[in-house]
Design goal:
Elements: E1 7-13, H1 15-30, E2 51-55, E3 61-65, E4 67-73, H2 113-122, H3 129-132, E5 144-146, H4 155-160, E6 162-164, E7 186-193, H5 204-211, H6 214-229, E8 234-241, H7 246-261, E9 266-272, H8 282-302, E10 305-309, H9 335-349, H10 362-369, E11 378-382, H11 393-402, E12 407-408, E13 419-427, H12 453-464, E14 469-475, E15 479-480, E16 512-513, E17 515-522, H13 524-536, H14 545-549, H15 554-569, H16 574-586
Parallel strand pairs: 1-4, 1-8, 4-7, 8-9, 9-10, 13-14
Antiparallel strand pairs: 2-3, 5-6, 11-12, 11-17, 13-17, 15-16
Helix pairs in contact: 1-9, 5-7, 7-8, 8-15, 11-12, 13-15
Length: 587
Amino acid sequence: MASSTREVVTLQFGHYANFVGTHWWNVQESSFCYDTSSGSSPSEINHDVLFREGLTLTGEQTYTPRLLLYDLKGSLNTLKEDGTLYDVMEKDNEVHWMGDVTLHTSETSGKNQFLKDLERIDKGELPTEEDASSAGTEDSHDEIQEATPHSSTNPLEVFRSKLYNLDGSVSVWSDFLRIHLHPRTVSILSEYAHDLEQDMFDVFDYGQQLLGTPRVSSDLEDRLHFFVEDCDSLQGFQVLVDPYNGFGGLAAEVLEQMSEDYDNKGILTFGCYPSVYVRRSPIVDYHRLICTVLSVTKLSTSSSLYAPLSVAAGLGRDPGPTASFPYMTYNPTLHYHTAGILAATLDTCTLPYRTRSDAVLMTDLTGTLNYSGRKMAALSARLPFPITLDGSLAASLSQFVAAPDLVSLCPGVKEPGRTFMQSVVLRGVPSNRIRIPDPAAHADSIFRDCRSVNDCLKRYLQRVYPGTLNAGTVVNEPMTVTTPFPHLFQPEIAHDGLVGFKPRSPMQGVEKVPAMTSLSSPSGLQGCLTALHGEVEKLDIRRFHRFLDAGLEEDEFKEAVESLRRLARTYQTGDNEMAEDSDDDSD
């Protein structure tokens, strides 16, 4: 590990958060360079920030995420809690009881073709001719298809050349987990079961209650201390959480303790919302709404910065329509798809504190964005960032000067309004695609004298956001979206992520893409928070007895509702302050 590395520990709370996290770890692992003999220069991304080296009991070297994740019983499928992906856990059915016994068991789904191949690759086995005979196309319904012929004898390279369609074979996040996990990573809350109609984990205080039990409390403390003490220079924590159920309460309680124990460290928290909920009814929708309100107020208080994420437009009871990306097609009902989009955006927006050189501290990033008590942030993306095969970065940015069109991934924020501060990351622009091909024909372009990606990005931010405190980060490496990332990119996107002139062959997937993200503090968050406040302002919490039975006090809920209003006011500008005053007068 490099002496200059400032490590980050990641925590994931909840099933959808683990979908997002799994994609994120897969994306990072797919960009690792295992062949150190090729003489290639080291990656710009310092993976030691999020990953740790270790040794197995047999002396084999490992490289696993510095990660704690929490989920419910029934959410692992073939993954063992000790992080071994490839062997189904042996069950001890011996019962030490002399009376009548009823043994309840749950079936474990079999491995999909991706996991079967991954197991063989882990053993160093090459695919057989029988595998090659299962060729198909990118949009085939078969689980596995063969991509372009591969001459390599490296099992990993052959594996990466395959295309998989896992849309129909992913039910839980471990069904597409590509990496190994440390034995201390996975913790299952056995008190509740995943996808169970009875005793649902849908009340905020259920999570708080769990942390009050000695088993969960001591287990979390032991796991967290292990990863923290393993760090030489810890800079902070990344947190992914399902804020719409009991995991919001668990995370809020954990972060409150962490903010006291590690008060000089950064805590960057992302609330992960799916775009479609399987269960919809008035009572279920209100439960989600109440959990969301409590999560927003408590997580934003205990975190250095809190950013809700979703491809859906709404943060309240109705998720609303889903975001549209110019060069992507996805199924909003599949967590496997929507979580992939969120993970790709997270992988890009967190690069400022993960680069090998010129990295910023997480506390510096969050401290800039949370100025004046603005503890909530909005994330938006342009994925992929469009550069044509005969075009340039300057030409692409020129299109967006008049009408910036980053897609909002902050539910409740359609238009950002005034942006107070933002951290913009641009990655994956080819070195030969920077300048306008014919500068003389574009003499009036603001990019005519730009010589680098940094120059172009700086000029763009100055022109489009003149009154904003802008921080720009450029990384040359594109984002890797190989197996098992879902096939979301339209045929116009070539295998290298550029916009082509003809459709990509269905036998070929997209391997890498350029991307642009903005993590910002915009005035549009006032409308988001005000709308959320409006949904709960007159809500009688006494109607929801399960929350009260779990320990929620009426005054506590009223204070959370008022905290929403106070948080919304921190994003006021002159214009939206007048609009709010007008709304108040009409009440």
